[in-house]
Amino acid sequence: MPLQEKDILVEAFTDMAPDYERKVNSELNLFWGWSYQGFVKELIERTPIFKTDTILDVATGTGVISHHLAREGRSQNHIHALDITYPMLKRARDRFENSNIGDEGELICASAMDMPYNEGTFSLVICGLATHHMEVEKFVFESHRILTSDGRLSIIDVGGSLNWNIPGVKFLIRIVAYLYFLITENHSRAWAESSAISNVRAKEEWQALLLRSGFKELKIKKLSSKNWFIPSPLLIQAVKI
Ligand SMILES: C[S@@+](CC[C@H](N)C(=O)[O-])C[C@H]1O[C@@H](n2cnc3c(N)ncnc32)[C@H](O)[C@@H]1O
Fold first, then answer.
1. Which residue, 196, 47, 20, 64, is CA-closest to 125?
2. How many angstroms is it from 106 CA to the middle of ligand 1?
3. How many CB atoms sit inside 10 A of residue 238's CB?
4. Could you give the CA distance from residue 25 to residue 199 in angstroms, rounded to a whole number?
5. Which residues contact 60 (CB under 8 A, 6 or more apart)?
C-alpha cells in the first residue's frame, strides 16, 4: 500500500480509537442487525481452539478478540496480536492491563502485509473485521507463511457479491460509502471505507483464493443480514496444507 494511503487509513483508525466499540456496534447493527459483541462471539465460538494453540490476532484493534481469548484461557501460550494503528493498540494494552491479564498479550505495531514473524510460528491466525482494509492476497500469503502445517486461519468480515464485478458497480458503491462515512464521520474514515470496497470478496472469490494459496478444508459461511441489499458478512475458515 503506498505510504499516503497507509497514512490515511491509520489516521481514520486513530480518530476512531477512543470510541471504537460504540461506533462499530452501531454500524454492525445498522448494516446487518448484528451487535459487535455478538459478532465477536460468533467468531470465537465457531473457531476450534485448543489449549496448546499459539494464536495470532491480526489487526486486533482495541484487542477485544484477544482479550476474550485470554480471559477464557483458550490458550496456555501468550496471545499475540498486531495492528498497524498505534492508538488502537494502546487501547488493547489498557484493556489487558485493566483486567489483570496484562502478561497474556504480546502486542506489536506492524502491518499484516509483512508480518514480523518466522515461518510456522502460529497454529491459529484469527482476524476480525479487517481483511477489507488489506491487500487480501498478501494477507492470505502472509498468514500461510507464518502458520504451522495444519495451522488454521479463521476470519470474520464483510462479504461481497459477484455482481459487484459488473463494470461500474464497485465504483458506485465506493461513492455511496464515501458519502455515507463523510456525513457520519470524517474524510479519512470515508476514504478508508470507500477504498476498502475493492478489497471485499464474495464467498466464491475467497474459496478460489484460499485454494490457490495452499489452504484446504475450507468452510465459508454466510452470516445473517437484516438488509437484503447488503451482502452477508462471512465467517471463513481454512487449514494450511
Ligand atoms: C474495524 S477494525 C477491527 C479491529 C478488531 N479486529 C475488531 O474485531 O474489533 C480494523 C483494524 O484493522 C487495522 N488494520 C488495517 N489495515 C491493517 C494492516 N495492513 N495491518 C495491520 N492492521 C491493519 C486497523 O488499524 C484497525 O485497527
1. 47
2. 16
3. 28
4. 22
5. 66, 81, 82, 83, 88, 89, 92, 107
Task: Report which of 85, 111, 62 is spatially closest to residue 13, judged by C-alpha positions.
Answer: 85
Asked if 232 and 159 count as a contact pair (C-beta separation under 8 A), the reply is yes
pLDDT one-digit tens code per residue, 159-182: 999 999 999 999 999 999 999 999
Sheet holding 234-240, edge to edge: 105-109, 79-83, 55-58, 122-128, 147-157, 234-240, 215-222
The single-letter code of the amino acid at 70 is A
pTM: 0.96
Q: Does ligand 1 come within 6 angstroms of the Cβ of 107? A: no
- Residue closest via CA to ligand 1's atom 13 equals 59
Q: Class of 3-240 per CATH?
A: alpha beta
